[in-house]
Amino acid sequence: MREVAILGVGQTPVREHWEMSLRALAVEAGRAALADAGVDKVDAIYVSNMNSDRLVGQRHLGPLVADYLGQRGVEAVKLEAACGSAGSAMRQGMMAVASGELERVLIIGAEKLTETPHQETTAALATAADADFEVEQGITFVGLNALIMRRYMHEYGYTHKDFAPFAIAAHANASRNPNALYRYAIDEREYERGRDVADPIRLYDASPIGDGAAALLLVAADKAPSAVRVIGSASATDTVSVHDREDILWLNAAELSARRAYDQAKVGPADIDLFELHDAFSIMAALSLEACGFAERGRGVRVGLDGDITLGGRIPISTMGGLKARGHPVGATGLYQLVEATLQLRGEAGATQVPGARIAMTQNIGGSGATITTHILKA
Amino acid sequence: MREVAILGVGQTPVREHWEMSLRALAVEAGRAALADAGVDKVDAIYVSNMNSDRLVGQRHLGPLVADYLGQRGVEAVKLEAACGSAGSAMRQGMMAVASGELERVLIIGAEKLTETPHQETTAALATAADADFEVEQGITFVGLNALIMRRYMHEYGYTHKDFAPFAIAAHANASRNPNALYRYAIDEREYERGRDVADPIRLYDASPIGDGAAALLLVAADKAPSAVRVIGSASATDTVSVHDREDILWLNAAELSARRAYDQAKVGPADIDLFELHDAFSIMAALSLEACGFAERGRGVRVGLDGDITLGGRIPISTMGGLKARGHPVGATGLYQLVEATLQLRGEAGATQVPGARIAMTQNIGGSGATITTHILKA
After folding, report:
1. What's the pLDDT at B87?
2. Which of A287, A299, B217, B337 has its CA 20 to 30 A from that of B145?
3. Cα separation of B326 and B173, whole Å?
4. First CA to last CA across chain B, in angstroms?
5. In whole angstroms, what is the distance from residue B240 CA to residue B251 CA?
6. Which of B23, B94, B141, B237 is the best residue to mutate to test the A interface, defined by the most A CB atoms within 10 Å of its own CB?
7. What residues have CB less than 8 Å from B285, skipping those under 6 apart?
8. Is A184 left (phi over 0), alpha (psi -120 to 50) or beta?
9. What does DSSP say about strands B359-366 and B371-378: parallel, antiparallel, or unpaired?
């Protein structure tokens, strides 16, 4: 196993891209990553996407994206792990380069969600949950997260307002990221005024979907000595259905994958300068912080209340807006996290730069915690 | 890169499995492979499937299958490349073990197609083609293959009857494979009597869909010295849309991936004892034989006419019935090919054993040739 580096990154803004098709989004991000890397030809392309089969009528994205990117003939495949698809694609591409089998691997996450009626999109997203034992009961994805959040509040004695810092910090960062979907700040009053979505989840507890694509190019680290390196990479799973877990307040797969990534990277939570976590819902941000060792059990919400998650804090999260405010183009989200972490480590994060960032962690979650992939990057 | 071996294989019969869910099929094949290998726990599970999102309402098969197989927590992901999904999953799992990152990797292909109305299944399968430039025109998958077959007949002067040996050989082999869908032989008269599907494709030129799952367990070859080894593994792509190709009578991705696999394995077509090719349509069998060097251009059909594709022939194909008669559970098909090739090399192919088989090749095609993965196995 050789070390792997990220030679180039690219992204489209997260928007309602009415004027761009899914393939056009993927190509724009892919081209940007190739240009950033100064590379023309690649050996393979790993595409991540969740919903194109149902919402765009297009499967088989590997060869499609390869062709439209001018890479006809190269090895290409699509990976899917619901909202965790992009983290999984990165993990597989990483192994392909680490093995020595492939030299230049382009990973592209792309998703188009906003051209279909809301109920179709909601139904498509629900396929991340257990069709036979969750969706069958009529519960949506927001509903599942609402159950978990309610239990958390009950168990540890928090009120809704205690979750405010997650949304406030994410919006503050997104307001300074031109690629974010929601480029405006909110305050606690606005957070509390958000309308109910699925009690106790209100508007600002839930991330917005969006269209977008992000990409990065992987090479062997010894071919790119000054590039950001991947020093930890691990993926783990849990039950798809929330009710099958012994403890719905603990993300087993986050703990498992983070622990493995820490071991590989020979670092611990105290060494992480920023953490791009999967804040699809504010409760998920709290649970991720706990499972990854940034807070004791039941104290993830406190990390926000203590002011530790902002850019100058102990563990900055969602530094470019996170899922909450940069937006959540589901199958592409894990790539946005990796691209943003890379920009931070290159000192190119602009107005949201974390000063002196040297080690970054990203964590992409599929479903309600069923697939969780963790990467640790180093400048 | 270390060498990889196939320690265990498993499969369900290809049927209309009305009594079994998709997850149950995957678990049955996975359990059979684990039992065959004598292994309880694995490091990762690669699931291949094409249509579960649309036809079963279930995405996120990686963790779902892992959980129901008693492997909760392990790394797991789903790969999709249309009908070539399983070949792609094998390729990725192969690299993961070859890299040294993972020790025991279970690959499972599973598909459930027969519980939905035909038009829904046909629409789902059409997402393997180009949604914007092929499907938009109303053409189906059979239609695309019919265009290619008609051109082939015109260009090289064949009649419909010349393709008969492919279907006859496949049915002869399937009649002796208890896991096949169509366990009966046909003759030339029956072949010619098949009703039109999309002229010139008639009934016996097209493979039948079916439900099924197949699985195999990969380990490092040095841990399993007597197991069948993977000595070649390569994947390549072509345009998704047939009309974008310079030559619709040549499978570029088959040639590219076969050539790479031959190079890795240090063998050529003359060394291959059996070839599990992707005979989704009889025209695809002819084109695969040509692109992989078993026949000159335009003479793939002659390989059948010369009697070379039967069990005792120069290059036996579809030895357990192929897609044509074992059946084509699309996202699982590539795994069936690999499982059958492994059984042949172990001398466990029963009534369809190729005497003295030592080197086998498998080739899985996605779409009309857009994703093609080739593996070469050695006893």
Report:
1. 98
2. B337
3. 9
4. 20
5. 12
6. B237
7. B166, B277, B278, B279, B300, B304, B317, B318, B322
8. beta
9. antiparallel
Looking at B8-163, list the stretches that DSSP marks H as alpha helix, in order from N- to C-terminal side.
22-37, 52-55, 61-68, 85-98, 118-126, 141-156
Q: How many angstroms separate the CA atoms of A333 and A364, rounded?
A: 8
- Provide the 3-class DSSP secondary structure of residue A36: helix
CA A238 to chain B, closest CA, distance in angstroms equals 5
Catalytic residue among A17, A171, A328, A375: A328
Report the b/e string of B210-225 with b at 16+ CB within 10 A: bbbbbbbbbbbbeebe
Q: Do A240 and B60 touch (CB under 8 A)?
A: yes
- Reported as a single tens digit per residue, the pLDDT across A79-124 is 999 999 999 999 999 999 999 999 999 999 999 999 999 889 999 9
Q: Hey, what are A50's tokens?
A: 């969740």
pTM of the model: 0.97
Type of residue numbered B76: A
B70: closest CA of chain A, how far (Å): 10
Q: Is A96 left (phi over 0), alpha (psi -120 to 50) or beta?
A: alpha
- Phi and psi at residue A216, to the nearest 5°: -150, 155
Residue B367 forms contact with A (CB below 8 Å): yes
Neighbours of A205 (CB within 10 A): 28
Q: Taking the mean position of all CA atoms in its chain, how far away is CA A298?
A: 23
Closest residue, chain B, to A234 (C-alpha): B75
Residue B366 has a pLDDT of: 98
The full set of domains in chain B, from first to last, is 4-117+212-378 (3.40.47.10)
**B11 burial type by CB count under 10 A (0-12 exposed, 13-18 middle, 19+ buried):** buried
Residue type, B179: N
Phi, psi dihedrals of residue B350, rounded to the nearest 5°: 60, -135
Please measure the distance between the N-terminal and C-terminal CA atoms of chain A and give it in whole angstroms: 20
Contact criterion met (CB below 8 Å) for A33 and A216: yes
Amino acid at position B246, single letter: E
The span from the CA of A194 to the CA of A217, in Å, is 39
Cα atoms in the 13 Å half-sphere on the side-chain side of B305 = 13
B80 has a chain A CB within 8 A of its CB: yes
Query: How would you label B255-293 residue by residue, b for 16+ Cβ within 10 Å and e otherwise?
Result: bbbbbbbbebbebebeebbbbbbbbbbbbbbbbbbbbbb
Give residue B298's identity as a one-letter amino acid code: G
Torsion A125-A131-A134-A138 (CA) sign: positive
Which tokens is B246 given? 């310079």
Instruction: Name residues of chain A where pLDDT drops below 50.
Output: none
Binned at pLDDT 50, 70 and 90, residue B56 comes out as very high
pLDDT of residue B378: 98
Dihedral, CA of residue B101, residue B107, residue B112 and residue B118, to nearest 10? 90
Active site amino acids of B: 83, 328
CA distances to A10, A25, A43, A150 from A110, in Å: 12, 7, 19, 32
Separation of alpha carbons B62 and A87, rounded Å? 13
Q: A364: which residues sit within 8 A by CB, 6+ positions away?
A: A83, A84, A86, A87, A88, A278, A333, A334, A337, A372, A373
Best CA proximity match to B359, nearest among B290, B296, B244, B270: B270
Q: Does A22 touch chain B (CB under 8 A)?
A: no
